[in-house]
Specification:
- The complex is a heterodimer of chains A (about 260) and B (about 200).
- Chain A has helices at about 50-55, 60-70, 90-105, 110-120, 130-135, 140-150, 155-170, 175-195, 240-255; strands at about 5-10, 20-25, 30-35, 45-50, 80, 85-90, 125, 155, 200-205, 210-215, 230-235.
- The longest helix of chain A has 18 residues, at about 175-195.
- Chain A has two domains: about 45-120, Orthogonal Bundle (Multidrug-efflux Transporter Regulator, Chain: A, Domain 2), CATH 1.10.1660.10; about 120-255, no CATH class.
- Chain A is flat.
- Helices cover about 40% and strands about 25% of the residues of chain A.
- In chain B, strands 3-4-6-8-10-11-9-7-5 form a nine-stranded parallel barrel.
- The radius of gyration of chain B is 18 Å and the shape is elongated.
- The chains are: A alpha+beta (about 260), B mainly beta (about 200).
């Protein structure tokens, strides 16, 4: 189990005992905690550095260069002690997929451009009007955002928040009054969650609604359950949403 | 912002972290936070209580960095201590270098003693040549050295891995793993060498 979640029923919302995440739904306090080590089970499919180089045929120099240019995230380098000393391991599927991706892109893109593509939070600012123009979000959502925040340009996390809101509204899961909750949560905390598989959970209980972002520290995903009276209105895979959004933004950018 | 932010510190002083164009420290200085600049040159003594991100870093005195250094080229002809990692396209050193984390550079060219936990890159050349009667002095120590083309002289290391490895005189290495070629000087000590 990657992360543990304890569900406590209390009259008063608990103060966060130990971070990282503590929020309350009316009279329910959900306390989530995970332990960094446990989140990375030993039996997970890892590949040693030597094996990786043999398998893919890349050199030490390339691997280090890619790491330096942030094409490979720092936390994929897992240091483990083996009987011969410290060795570096990687999550097998991810690193193989990433190296394949880099090799494909390397032909016609520079390393910095690739780093920009693979970065979990692309460094982009998008004018609000363009979002509606390229049908990334609906006109109504844009109007809402203009009224709520007054911003004319958005950064990636904000665009993601808007597209999530857009989808939840269209699916009939939330009302406009609740959109602000999602907007604030994503805007403030998305950067911290970007590199991990994250799910957004929207919960309503006795007419009070809230949302939470759930992620395990590293590999393995996380799960969350609430007591019976709290209704999980929507679960949304943020990682997939971010990937889809990146694609649409790139397409929109190419169209100009 | 169009004006150039060039800081020149002569004498004793402190500098807040932040974004600059050029930072020159020619005395005793302290940078109180993370700096981002085009050129950082230290020719006195400097303590940095944060990270450094720069295009060029030149150190001709003594510099002590609490965080990481990231630069395109780093040139050290004095004494550099880094508590974090060091990343550069090119690292040239003629002095004393101490890095507690990883040194990651395409081209590493070091002469002189030092202590680094991990070195990784393309071409790695570390030369700490000492005449026999001075060998008792501390030489160059590293935990791991990895690279495509590794040349070592007078280096004590636990692991050396690479494509082409040249273990020169005065080296002591626990394990060597090479893919193509290994050359070993007659007075180098290698406990275990294997072709991967």
């Amino acid at each position: 189990m990657a992360a543990r979640f304890a569900l406590l029923h209390t009259a008063e919302p608990l103060q966060p005992l130990f971070s990282p995440l503590c929020f309350s739904v009316a009279n329910v306090t959900v306390l989530c905690y995970d332990t960094a080590r446990e989140a990375f089970p030993v039996d997970e499919d890892l590949i040693s550095k030597k094996e990786l180089l043999d398998l893919t045929g890349i050199s030490y120099g390339q691997l280090y260069r890619w790491k330096r240019k942030r094409l490979i995230p720092e936390d994929w380098f897992i240091r483990r002690s083996t009987f011969t000393g410290q060795e570096t391991f990687f999550p097998r599927d991810k690193i193989l997929a990433r190296i394949e991706l880099i090799r494909n892109m390397k032909e016609d893109l520079s390393l910095d451009e690739i780093a920009h593509r693979v970065s979990p939070v692309p460094d982009v600012t998008v004018p609000l009007d363009d979002l509606a123009k390229h049908h990334i979000v609906t006109q109504t959502t844009c109007e809402w955002c203009r009224a709520a925040s007054g911003q004319a340009t958005l950064v990636f996390a904000e665009v993601l928040a808007l597209s999530v809101i857009d989808e939840l509204i269209r699916g009939g899961h939330i009302a406009w009054g609740e959109a602000d909750i999602v907007w604030r949560a994503l805007r403030e905390h998305y950067a911290r969650f970007a590199e991990r598989p994250t799910t957004l959970v929207f919960v309503r209980k006795l007419g009070v609604s809230t949302c939470a972002m759930v992620a395990a520290r590293q590999e393995g995903g996380a799960d969350i359950e609430f007591e019976g009276e709290a209704h999980v209105v929507a679960r949304m895979d943020l990682t997939a949403a971010a990937e889809a959004l990146k694609l649409r933004l790139t397409e929109a950018g190419e169209r100009g | 912002m169009t004006e150039e932010r060039v800081v020149r510190l002569n004498g004793v002083g402190r500098l807040a972290g932040g974004r600059y164009d050029d930072v020159h420290i020619e005395g005793v200085g302290r940078i109180e936070g993370d700096v981002e600049c085009a050129t950082l040159s230290v020719s006195g003594k400097c303590q940095v209580r944060g990270r450094i991100r720069a295009a060029r870093v030149t150190i001709e005195g003594k510099c002590d960095v609490r965080g990481d250094i990231e630069a395109e080229s780093i040139q050290v002809s004095g004494w550099l201590t880094v508590r974090g990692n060091l990343a550069a396209d090119r690292l040239v050193g003629h002095g004393l270098l101490r890095v507690e984390g990883l040194v990651n550079a395409d081209e590493v060219d070091l002469r002189g003693p030092g202590r680094i936990r991990e070195v990784g890159g393309g071409r790695v050349s570390i030369d700490c040549h000492r005449p026999v009667w001075l060998r008792w002095l501390n030489g160059f120590r590293a935990d791991t050295v990895e690279g495509d083309d590794v040349r070592l002289v007078g280096v004590h290391a636990r692991w050396v891995r690479g494509d082409t490895i040249d273990i020169g005189s005065g080296c002591r290495v626990d394990r060597v793993e090479y893919r193509r070629h290994l050359r070993q000087a007659p007075d180098a000590v290698v406990r275990d060498a294997r072709q991967a």
